[in-house]
Structure of p53 DNA-binding domain-containing protein:
Amino acid sequence: MSFQSDVLSPEDQKFLYEEVAGVPLQLFDDEPTILLTDFPKNEDILKIPKPVTTVLSNEEYEGPFNFEVDIIPNGSKNGWFFSPTLNKVYMDIKAPFPIDFKVKQRPLHPLFIRVTPMYSSPQFAQECVSRCVNHEYAEATTSPHIMAHIRPHIIRCQNQSAFYIGDKTNNERLSIIIPLSFPQMGTNSIREMFEFTCKNSCPVPGMNRRSIEVIFTLEDSESQIYGRKTLNVRICSCPKRDKEKEEADDSGKTQPPKGKKRKLDKPAKKIVSNNQDLREFTIQIPIAGKHNIGHVLKYCHDLMAGEVARHSGNGVETTAPYTNALSKISTMIKDLNE
């Protein structure tokens, strides 16, 4: 074996030849090709509960592991206020809010906390709670690092291991799945920080002044529920004022004396003003985007449904115009989705 080089001197060439003589030149050993599909997917590493489409129960249930959700009452300096009497928290948008979770004698398999907002009124309980258009699309510009599937969620968790699941276009409820960790040394609870990204007063497809409650469920990877707690929430600009007002309204509700029978007076039928306009109108307005047509129809649907509920005690002649309009709007929504 010999070689010639225009760069190395004959002495250097001889030295290198002697160093490598008889040694096969192998820079790399053959290794099997590693494909992307060879790596385990996230769901293979940690299986999490699936999205839900049904109306969630709000009946509290401690379950076999004594599931507890604790609210720290002192929030006067943190942008939020908690009312124990109403089991309700009042806060401004994007105000960090701590919640402590406790379990006892937990099993060996992983547990999760599912956090799901739901409308308090049975009339709207089947609807998915999501953000308004203004806040959702503004975040796409101001915080482009936030993934698109997270933006519709009104609740955010500061836990980096949290999963945001659900798709409102498939009628799936928007939930946060948090792997339940173990308490730190010297404590018996796990604290998670939350914040809300939309207000109750935001227009459709937001909450549109409807009350909400947050359902906390303790689950395993198969969505088996081991505990459930609820918390009423109001996201507003003046949490202290709204808290004091609602507590005053609640305390003003007088209760009959115990031990005495009282006759229940039949509620008087509401008198409908003669100048109330019950005529049906049809309008044509230009709208860009099929999805925006759905938002407008949804708002009209909720508006007519609210009128039916408010006038339910005034007779069929009063509710009939609203019921007829509601039926026609429902048909339009169905045709739009087909």
